[in-house]
Amino acid sequence: NYQAQKEPALCGPYRDYTICGAQPPSSGGIAVLSILGQLENFDMTALGNSLQGWQAFAESSFQAYADRDQYVADDNFVTVPVSAMLDKGYLKSRAGLISSKSAMKDVKAGTPDGMIMGDDATPDSPGTSHFTIIDPSGLTVSMTTTVESVFGSQRMVEGFMLNNQLTDFSFRTHDAAGRPIANAPEPGKRPRSSMSPTIVFDPAGELLFTTGSPGGSSIIAYTAKTIVGILDWGLTPQEAIDLPNVIARNGSIRLEENRLDEDIITGLEGLGHKVIRSKGEISGLHIIYRNPDGSLTGGADPRREGTARPL
User: Fold this and answer.
1) Which of 27, 47, 215, 273 lies at a CB distance of 3.0 to 4.6 Å from 68, suitable for a disulfide?
2) Could you give the CA distance from residue 253 to residue 293 in angstroms, rounded to a whole number?
């Protein structure tokens, strides 16, 4: 009985720009805006691609993921406090917990609008694709789609792989304290995803660029870093994609050691972070950027098989 639902985009400000993403049960739109809303309280341009720049990014990610895990699910079944989670005052208070001198210990979800939900128990399963297109008329699409794990449910119907996205539900309905978990399964309920297809608009309200990626829950961090890279660090689409992936969630930072300066990695460790060194991530970022003269510049992630091609 499943029917697709057409929802308005979830849009929010970042400095002079407008960032638009997906509504719940996707958690990407909320979490990306949460990271950016915290970073808005820092001069990320001055911090740059440095230890302190990545420290601010990582700590903001820790808190955004914690809130996302606790509160985001199908809003037809649970109350998702979207406005409270993205309130400027709330995000400023979260940013106030971030120190340049040490890592936060035992990051907890906040209490936007006074809400308290159970601790999440949703597994992380990759199996997603992303693409972005701008046609000759200017119609713009940023699309993320998933069958969940590799080959989905491993069942094919009329040439299509059926997805296995039920694994995006929490495998428990209540946490150890007996509190209900927002993303618990129910009949007819849509599972939470991390998909973050994003379109960014300039101060005049015109398209500036699109971004998005596959990669399980890491999608949120992959997407957010490209927005910071382009808007704060002045990078080209390809340079923003090529930035190291730094995923800070659940008490540890997983990062690409071959793309990040060793001084930054050891600096993060020196601040007290548990750092997991990765040889590579499974991001598949795609970006199309509109230049001031109206021409388009594309970028594709070398970590996967994507390419950027003019129409």
Assistant:
1) 27
2) 39
